[in-house]
UniProtKB/TrEMBL annotation:
Sequence ranges assigned to domain Sigma-54 factor interaction in this UniProt record: 342-562
Gene Ontology MF term list: ATP binding; DNA binding
InterPro entries: AAA+_ATPase, AAA_lid_NorR, GAF-like_dom_sf, P-loop_NTPase, Sigma_54_int, Sigma_54_int_dom_ATP-bd_1, Sigma_54_int_dom_ATP-bd_2, Sigma_54_int_dom_CS
Taxon lineage: Bacteria, Pseudomonadati, Pseudomonadota, Gammaproteobacteria, Vibrionales
Pfam families, alphabetized: AAA_lid_14, Sigma54_activat
PANTHER family: TRANSCRIPTIONAL REGULATORY PROTEIN (PTHR32071)
PROSITE patterns: SIGMA54_INTERACT_1, SIGMA54_INTERACT_2, SIGMA54_INTERACT_3, SIGMA54_INTERACT_4
Name of this protein: Transcriptional regulator
């Protein structure tokens, strides 16, 4: 009443200066433009029965969703309060209500009946009508109602938007003046957000992927988590308002790759129970989980069983193990983090994944050949069967036969009385992974060839053969072609197992190091929320030679996680061995550049030392003569790796080492690489 007295005494604008609320001030101006005065009576405008039924039918999903989300709050928090929860449509017509209207006078009860309009032009400034006008949440205190007749209550309301960001309704809590307005306003916002989230889920959940994210991994189940929906092509087709706020831009219509820095393909197969992270607003790390379509879109290369995943298996393999089946292995698309060479290998593997074409996975030690083999198996139609992994280099030569092919009782001295099935028969129906097959003894190679040709195996000490059906995948760190040339590997077995060779790049070659580090950190972090890597450390990672490849990176990250005590890994959390490798690499390249630049200068004046074809001419009587070329150890250690990592690009090798192309050619000839 005091505010109305001020209005009468000092005039309209003076009174509005006391509200300190531009929203209320603008609403009072609108009320005046509608021809209302504070003494006007509320106008009860109700839909007729037919129009009301139509409005209710149109809003059926909104009413059901709101009731589902509101009732838990009301029953747990508001049930003993003198309050009403109202749901109105986008025009301000009441659709439903929950609670006790004890604060409403007998004369005003018709205002709270379903079908009644609460637009400002009928009822002055009020939470429902003003929220519709502004499109934002609003609190209207007792004396802030324009009509004196409505000043027996306070109200808080917030608009409800559907997945298309179209206003579909307003949620309101009205009560007497004894509930704290800040508390009620917060509750309205939470309930509204819950309704909006549920509308998005109901519209898109069945056939699309969802990304739920927040500033903490502990709050991913909060109503205030960001929520976006993306389709199989990676296009964001819906997002809640919280998602736009966290990322700092309107998300609908953008690419999920652009927003998160993570490929849509990777997100579409990411395990639902595994937390990931990405950067939202500047320096704002967001933690997320993925929800996949309830009606699954199965990729061409995958089977339903391939969509259950756990964390990346980074443990070193034992001599032989029954590797996890598809319920604990990653499928091929999950290994694609953006590197071109890895993408090529993955794409090639996917093309033959459901055929029985043998695969050879070639790469340096520690690049993840076994993880790749597990992904091939998990993606294939054999995913429900066993993957039996055998490290040929780890089994003593005298035991390889019995371990692979099995044996019967009494087959040899020390044989188990029960005999042994052997790894090949264990893999029947599934996949046999032979790691480091290049180290397999020649006599064992002959027996393996026979098994592959006849599709049956005869255990040691037996004359009985057992049919077997398995996919064979081999891995090696060496060139099997070179091993064949040196008679270390049978050429007939080579052509049997080498249906398709897949080359995995070394870690120092990969262009997705940042993404790989993030992936491994999430896998290694016990609490799901992984720390960030400082820019300084990432620069060190990119400059490191990584002789142990991913296996070494995993150990470096494990140490860093153990030593870190915050949210960011810095150089102080890296081991001394890490820096030693880094220093040795820098020193080696520097020495190559210094010594061979001198050699380059000498070569300019050495025309007399070469014939017309450019071949070296050496005097056998010279004190510098040696039957074998003397190759600096730094070249022996470094040039082969550079040659393979650059795919024989002489110009690139010369640029890296700082010497001439002629010097590179000379050293390559000496090493037998060119």
């Amino acid at each position: 009443m005091q505010r109305f007295r001020t209005l009468k005494k000092e005039g309209w604008m003076s009174d509005m200066a006391h509200t300190h609320d531009e929203v209320i001030q603008a609403s009072w101006h609108r009320c005046r433009s509608f021809g209302l005065t504070p003494k006007s009576s509320p106008e009860i405008i109700q839909l007729n029965r037919g129009d009301w039924q139509d409005a209710k039918a149109r809003a059926n999903d909104l009413i059901a969703t709101t009731q589902e989300q509101v009732l838990p709050y009301y029953e747990n928090i508001l049930v003993n309060s003198n309050s009403l929860v109202l749901l109105a449509d986008h025009e301000g017509t009441l659709l439903s209500q929950w609670g006790r209207p004890g604060f409403v006078g007998q004369m005003d009860k018709h205002l709270f009946e379903n079908g009644t309009s609460w637009q400002e032009k009928y009822n002055g400034t009020n939470a429902v009508g003003t929220a519709i006008q502004t499109g934002e949440s609003v609190v209207v205190g007792r004396d802030e109602h324009f009509l004196i007749a409505n000043r027996y209550m306070t109200a808080s309301a917030a608009p409800i938007y559907n997945s298309d960001r179209r206003l579909v309704g307003v949620l309101n809590i009205s009560s007497d003046a004894y509930l704290p307005t800040s508390h009620v306003n917060g509750m309205v916002k939470v309930m509204t957000q819950a309704v909006e989230n549920q509308l998005i889920i109901a519209t898109y959940r069945q056939h699309n992927h969802m990304l739920i994210f927040n500033t903490s991994s502990d709050n991913l189940d909060s109503q205030w988590a960001g929520m976006l929906v993306f389709n199989d092509e990676g296009m964001i087709i819906a997002a809640n308002r919280r998602a736009d706020l966290l990322v700092g831009q309107a998300l609908r219509g953008l690419s999920i790759d652009l927003v998160t820095g993570i490929s849509a393909l990777h997100l579409s197969v990411h395990p639902e129970n595994q937390t990931l992270s990405f950067i939202g607003l500047p320096k704002y790390r967001l933690f997320a989980t993925v929800k996949h379509p309830q009606v699954a879109h199965i990729p061409r290369v995958a089977t339903p069983a391939a969509f259950s995943h756990t964390k990346l298996n980074v443990a070193a393999s034992s001599p032989a193990s029954k590797a996890p089946t598809s319920t604990s292995a990653r499928i091929l698309p999950m290994l694609d983090l953006g590197d071109g060479k890895m993408h090529r290998a993955i794409r090639q593997a996917q093309s033959v994944v459901n055929s029985d074409i043998p695969l050879v996975i070639q790469g340096e030690t520690g690049v993840g050949k076994e993880v790749f083999a597990q992904a091939v198996h998990a993606t294939s139609e054999r995913a429900s069967e066993k993957l039996v992994a055998v490290n040929c280099a780890a089994i003593p030569a005298e035991l390889v036969e019995s371990e692979l092919f099995g044996y019967v009782k009494g087959a040899f001295t020390g044989a188990s009385a029960k005999g042994s099935l052997g790894y090949i028969r264990q893999a029947d129906g599934g996949t046999l992974f032979l790691d480091e097959i290049g180290d397999m003894p020649l006599h064992v190679q002959a027996r393996l060839l026979r098994v592959l040709q006849e599709k049956s195996v005869t255990p040691l000490g037996s004359t009985d053969s057992y049919p077997v059906d398995f996919r064979i995948v081999c891995a090696t760190h060496q060139s099997l072609r070179d091993a064949v040339a040196s008679k270390q590997f049978r050429d007939d077995l080579y052509y049997r197992v080498n249906g398709l060779t897949l080359f995995l790049p070394s870690l120092r070659e990969r262009t997705d190091l940042r993404e790989l580090v993030a992936e491994l950190l999430m896998s290694l972090s016990e609490q799901g929320a992984s720390p960030m890597i400082s820019d300084d450390v990432m620069s060190l990672f990119q400059a490191h030679p990584w002789p142990g490849n991913i296996r070494q990176l995993v150990n470096v990250l494990r140490v860093a996680l153990a030593l870190s005590d915050g949210d960011v890994i810095t150089r102080h959390h890296l081991s001394d061995d890490f820096f030693l490798d880094l220093q040795l690499n820098e020193r080696t390249l520097a020495e190559i550049a210094t010594i061979d630049k001198a050699e380059q200068k000498a070569e300019i004046h050495a025309d007399e030392s070469t014939d017309s074809l450019g071949n070296d001419v050496v005097n056998p009587l010279s004190s510098q003569y040696s039957p074998q070329p003397i190759i600096p150890s730094r070249w022996q250690d470094t040039l082969p790796a550079l040659f393979h990592s650059t795919e024989g690009n002489i110009s690139k090798i010369a640029q890296i080492t700082g010497v001439s192309r002629n010097t590179v050619y000379k050293r390559l000839r000496q090493l037998g690489l060119k």
